[in-house]
């Protein structure tokens, strides 16, 4: 909810817009000489640009010819507008009642387009895209930056907004345009001996290189998508192992009910966390056991479903139930892990360190000597994922566990600032997979039907264009005549 002064400012902007009826004053028109005719029919728009919510400062942005009218009516600047791009401190008043709403900074950026109305969601950014100031992937990066909640998300969004991902796709798009132009030229002009025979061999090499690059790009293990939407971390294990206590400890609030009665948690309890700058969606689940209770059985089914979907599973075990011998304890833990795993998991991936962490809880109930022995020896046992010994009651061992958890989450997300730019959205992945499949069509029909092979390249270019937002047939013709000088 906006503070009352900003609600008044907003109403005043609306009144000004209605009064102006989209007609800019003559002095404003004189500042707009040279505005391109392609923008002349657009409307003036306004919006709250600083976001909704309680705040001490609000920014109202206006773009269009009636901007001068709004500025004059609401600031008393009736004779001249402020110097361009210079901040001016003014009292802001209601244009009808003349009531002072607030004092604030006014900035004037000359330039305009006609009509006035409230801006639609994202319309300022859409105009920047249509004007060629931002590419589509950069626009998406801007959106991710606005919604970023962790430091790693901010870094990834800022990198995408800088245009690095867009430049990669534009480079691929340029190569595909050249491939398509060469194939089309060969089809249309080879019989007139205007095209050299080696042209298609160059296309073959380019297509193979592009396929290899796309394949490497797609095999990113969804790191960018995880970082954008959050790593799915699920707490699983037997009843009364302390899963809900671990959730409450990590989020530092009583998010889940904790009770000595087994089977207290029956549904999935979720909470969002920031683990060392990385976004995590943490889920507490029902204890895994056979139960005659229909509700609890549904909770167990949901728990197993979440484990199947999880990026990382924290398998919680009551350490008080483990034998003191480390080898025997390891055997029991391996069996417990298998009971938690999805049924389709293969033995070779059962204890993958990037999928599972073992959390031995309630170590405050163990003799100190036994705890130290388990801590020392279980880490040396092969065939187990990383093991952390903690007590949710005393918080002992929690810091070491958080270090292990942060390392696992960072591995799943990767470093957003290093290496090649990664896919950040499922939309990108779907279009790239279609592009890759279309290039396979070129390979399949290359020696059978060159027209169908060319269609494969065209489909690949269209799929890539859906990511970048830009593709046109005119560019293909430009390449044909530039590269081959058809007809001189």
Can you offer a commentary on this structure?
- With 488 residues, the protein is α/β, with parallel strands linked by helices.
- It folds into 3 domains: 130 residues, Gyrase A, domain 2 (2-Layer Sandwich); 142 residues, Four Helix Bundle (Hemerythrin (Met), subunit A) (Up-down Bundle); 186 residues, Rossmann fold, CATH 3.40.50.
- The chain is 48% helix and 13% strand.
- The chain contains 17 helices and 11 strands.
- It has a 6-stranded mixed sheet, with helices on both faces. The chain has a 3-stranded mixed sheet with strand order 2-1-5, covered by helices on one side. Strands 3-4 form a two-stranded antiparallel sheet.
- The longest helix is centred in the middle third of the chain and has 26 residues.
Give a nutshell description of this structure.
With 488 residues, this protein is of the alpha/beta class. It contains 17 helices and eleven strands.
